[in-house]
Amino acid sequence: MSHKEWYAKGLRDGLPIAFGYFAVSFALGITAKNAGFTAFQAALTALLTNASAGAYAGFTLVAAGASYFEMALMQFIANARYLLMSTALSQKLDKKTGLIHRLIIGFDITDEIFGITVAVKDKLDPWYAYGAMTVSIPGWAAGTYLGVVMGNVLPAIIVNALSVGLYGMFLAIIIPPARRDKTVAALVIISMAASFIFAKAPVLSMIPEGVRIIVLTVAISLLAAIFCPREEEQDER
Q1: What residues have CB less than 8 Å from 62, skipping those under 6 apart?
Q2: pLDDT tens digits, one per residue of 187-224
Q3: How far is CA 60 from the centre of its chain?
Q4: The pTM is what?
Q5: Relative to the CA of 142, which of 43, 115, 148, 178 has its CA 20 to 30 Å away?
Q6: Which of 231, 230, 210 lies closest to 85, judged by CA?
Q7: Pair 157, 63: CB distance under 8 Å
Q8: Is 41 helix (H, G, I), strand (E, B) or coil?
């Protein structure tokens, strides 16, 4: 496929993500408004960060008058999981992929963008990621902007219901590979169970969410690599 074809495919695959981001960021805009942000300021913040938990935490800390150090520390904890995603996604890129392409892709590694890009067969063409980013980032910023402008007009139950669509998109990402590979299906179930235990157990639930994600990701991935290595990797060795 040419770069143009990869870009077009990225646009198509990124469109559902854009709709999901628009719905979720609508609630983010309400949080930004409560923190004293104007619609433009909130949209610009969303455009440059395109984060979910990190943005919520940031706006909440601004509203609470937190210091820059507290802000930086919270953002590191909330977004640390993207370090793991970047490491995994770098393995999908061709060795000849230049630094500029890597930096642009790294700018918008979100849970959803990572989900579709890491699922690409064989090597990842950077233009596929660019296509997904082209529609998803404006969707996030536009939703945030409208959330500030008119978010308080809608009932809270409707705003919360809008975010359900994003979970459906996650299911659309993980179900096809899980149906093809029993190992992937088992790992998905194990990951969900472990996440639930960490979130509900008395002591484990005290661990920050970002740290929990990193610990579970590293531990489960390590066990999968040891007991269920991929055949492609064995052939290369």
Answers
A1: 35, 36, 37, 71
A2: 889 988 998 998 888 888 888 766 777 788 788 888 88
A3: 20
A4: 0.71
A5: 115
A6: 210
A7: no
A8: helix
